[in-house]
Amino acid sequence: MVLLGEHDVDTLSGGIEVIFSKQGDTFIPLGCEKNEILEDSELIYSDDNNVRTRRWIWRQSE
Questions:
Q1: With a threshold of 0.85, does the pTM exceed it?
Q2: How far is the C-alpha of 51 from the C-alpha of 16, rounded, in Å?
Q3: Cα end-to-end span (Å), the chain
Q4: Contact call for residues 51 and 27 (beta carbons, < 8 A)
Q5: Three-state secondary structure of 1-58
Q6: Do 61 and 27 meet the contact criterion of CB atoms below 8 Å apart?
Q7: Contacts of 25 (CB under 8 A, 6+ apart)
Q8: Looking at the DSSP assignment, which residues form a beta bridge with residue 36?
Q9: CB-based contact 43:17 (threshold 8 Å)
Q10: Is the predicted pLDDT of residue 14 greater than 60, yes or no?
């Protein structure tokens, strides 16, 4: 199994990195409009302003 997310680098704010979330970080799932609130220490892909993937980096954002 290969896990990957696709990201439009032209829309990134700064670089992208794999980090642990902080309590209160938010995420909009692909195809949705409503924010989800993340728990502390969830592994995510994030740029400087937005969580790009979550749940062990397989769930893509809008």
A1: no
A2: 9
A3: 23
A4: yes
A5: CCCCCCCCHHHCCCCCEEEECCCCCEECECCCCCCEECCCCCEEEECCCCEEEECCCC
A6: yes
A7: 37, 38, 44, 46, 51
A8: 27
A9: no
A10: yes
